[in-house]
Structure formats: structure tokens, C-alpha cells
Design brief:
Layout: H1 2-5, H2 7-19, H3 22-25, E1 31-32, H4 33-40, H5 44-54, E2 60-62, E3 67-70, H6 86-96, H7 103-109, H8 113-118, H9 122-126, H10 130-145, E4 162-166, H11 172-177, E5 185-190, H12 195-204, E6 211-215, E7 227-231, H13 239-253, E8 258-264, H14 274-286, H15 294-303, E9 306-313, E10 318-325
Parallel strand pairs: 4-5, 4-7, 5-6, 7-8
Antiparallel strand pairs: 1-3, 2-3, 8-10, 9-10
Length: 327
């Protein structure tokens, strides 16, 4: 229990390592703490103590010659890796950590801890700063290249020429889904403050010629498409808000629209599953946002005029949930 209660110490120590870019500095091999400290702008003695505390957790190895190296686990905080967890460390600790201190308020009132702490809803606060938007899009890209990367292997979207990624952030999910699909065109749709990052990302991936980037509000209207992808979007919202998003899609796509949700599906019972801790994050940060079971997704979709056709489980903690308009 004491170890669980002290989790805040570990998360803060890992954040310091990520912020100072210690793992990146160690990519080329072991270094002394003194050299590390000089390179990252830290004091040697506090840095040595951080490393000593994290070494038993499998983040660092302290070698007999007095140098330090990262383990494979610690190396995931390097900025050089395509699946780097560093963006997630920065995003969570710079946007979630302090608001989560008001979780008791959520339990007593139902209001998101973040709303109380920040003075406004979380996403409004995030999109109010270009720096925070960049943190958000980088963290979402990590989820695509890291924990969710394995889920794209072998999966093919339902038929349709135009695929719209609604709430698509950087477009990283759409880019993965369009790999090996040269005949399909895409649309990344997100808030006007977010889509500039998508344009840059798609240009880097060589997709700018067949993926359009559109800014807007998915509660009001979305672009016309044949297939709509909602990647980890519905879990941010309560059922009423989700229905508004789904109805926007239904109105734009018409009776033949196909829908693909990329979400974690909460299993029944008490078995461990990442969605159960993510649900705790949603409770504190979004209030009405939540993770859902398969039955809850089916009921939500039905209430907005969609039928859940199938759930495609993947090697990752995430699934594809395919749905069509209810006749």
C-alpha cells in the first residue's frame, strides 16, 4: 500500500528525466552523472539521487565504472525513438498531474477535477495555448506509434473511397490506416487551433496530396465521407455529447456511412485491463468522459442511429468497433 501511495514520487521523477532529456543523452552510450548533469542543465547530486531511485525500477543501470546507462524500459523516454513515451510524460505531468489533486471534488460532486483546478473545461484550456496543443498532438502520436501501434497490423477499413478522421489531431491514426491504400483519400478534421499540426505531419509523411485538413467543430457539422474514424474521441465525452457527434456524422455521411471507433473496450469483471485506469483519468479530467464496455458502446450507437456490426480485437489494449447506419 505504501508503494501504491507513493506513486506520485515515481511519476514526478520520471517527468524530470523526460523533461531534462536524460534518456536521449544516453542513446550513444553510458555517461558519468557529472557529464549528464552538465549536458542537461541539472545539478549532479540531485540527478544522481533521481537515478539511484529509478534504477531499482528498471529505468537505469549504474555500472561498476561509475557511469550510467538506460535500460530498454528507460530508453523509451528517449526523444529519438519513433515510439518515444517522452511526449506522454510531458503531456500528463504538465496538464494532468496538478488538476488530478482535486479528484476528491469529483467524487463528491461529479464535476471534473480539472474543471475546478483550471477554472474551465480541460479541452478548452488545452486549446487555449499553442504549446499545450503541441503537447496534446505529440501525446496522441505516441499512442499511435506506441501502445496502439500493433493494432493496425492486418486491419483493413470498411469499403469507401473517402475516409474522414474526426477529431484526428495530427492525423497519425489516419496515416496508419491509409498505409497500403493508395486509392483512398482522407480528411483530417479537428479544431482550427489543432489542424496546423496535422498539415505539417501529413506533409512529412508524404500524404498531403491525398489527405485534406479541415478545421471545425464536430458537434456542429463534419465533412462528407464514406467511412468515418473516431479514434479515442468518444471516451472524452458523456453519452449526450457522444450522440451529438454521432448525429453530425450521420447527417453528413447519409444512410451508407460506415463508422469505425478506435477505443479501449472495458472487459467485464475484475481482471486487470489498461482501460480501467484510463477510465480513472477520464473521471478526473473530463467528468462525463468514460471508458465503455461492448454493451455500453452498442447501446450508445443504437441511441444515435447506428448498429454495432463487429468488434475487432487486436494485440494491443485497443479495438476497432465497426458500425453502420441503422435501417
Amino acid at each position: 500500500m505504501a508503494e501504491l501511495l507513493g506513486g506520485f514520487q515515481t511519476s514526478q521523477a520520471l517527468y524530470v528525466v523526460a523533461k531534462l532529456d536524460v534518456a536521449t543523452l544516453l542513446d550513444d552510450g553510458p555517461m558519468t552523472v557529472a557529464d549528464l548533469a552538465a549536458a542537461c542543465g541539472a545539478q549532479p547530486e540531485p540527478l544522481a539521487r533521481l537515478i539511484r531511485a529509478l534504477a531499482p525500477m528498471g529505468i537505469f543501470r549504474r555500472l561498476p565504472d561509475g557511469t550510467v546507462e538506460t535500460t530498454p524500459l528507460g530508453a523509451t523516454l528517449s526523444a529519438n525513438r519513433p515510439d518515444s513515451a517522452r511526449p506522454l510524460a510531458l503531456f500528463w505531468m504538465e496538464t494532468h498531474y496538478l488538476p488530478f489533486s482535486e479528484l476528491l471534488h469529483t467524487a463528491r460532486t461529479g464535476e471534473a477535477a480539472a474543471t475546478l483546478y483550471l477554472g474551465e473545461p480541460f479541452f478548452r484550456w488545452v486549446t487555449g495555448s499553442p504549446e499545450r496543443v503541441e503537447l496534446l498532438t505529440s501525446a496522441m502520436a505516441f499512442a499511435t506509434e506506441g501502445p496502439r501501434a500493433a493494432m493496425f497490423e492486418g486491419y483493413r477499413l470498411p469499403p469507401g473511397e473517402v475516409v474522414a478522421d474526426i477529431g484526428g489531431a495530427s492525423g497519425s491514426v489516419l496515416a496508419r490506416l491509409l498505409e497500403g491504400e493508395p486509392d483512398r483519400r482522407g480528411v483530417v478534421f479537428d479544431l482550427p487551433d489543432v489542424v496546423p499540426d496535422a498539415r505539417k505531419f501529413l506533409e512529412e509523411r508524404g500524404l498531403a496530396d491525398r489527405v485534406e485538413v479541415v478545421g471545425g467543430d464536430f458537434f456542429e457539422a463534419v465533412p462528407r465521407a464514406d467511412v468515418y474514424v473516431l479514434s479515442y474521441v468518444l471516451h472524452d465525452w458523456d453519452d449526450d455529447a457522444c450522440r451529438r457527434i454521432l448525429r453530425s456524422i450521420g447527417e453528413a455521411g447519409g444512410p451508407d456511412a460506415r463508422l469505425v471507433l478506435v477505443e479501449g473496450v472495458v472487459p467485464e469483471g475484475d481482471e486487470p485491463h489498461p482501460t480501467k485506469l484510463v477510465d480513472l483519468v477520464m473521471l478526473g479530467m473530463q467528468g462525463g468522459g468514460k471508458e465503455r464496455t461492448e454493451d455500453e458502446f452498442a447501446q450508445l450507437l443504437a441511441s444515435a442511429g447506428f448498429t454495432l456490426d463487429r468488434v475487432v480485437a487486436t494485440p494491443s489494449p485497443y479495438s476497432f468497433l465497426e458500425a453502420s447506419r441503422t435501417p
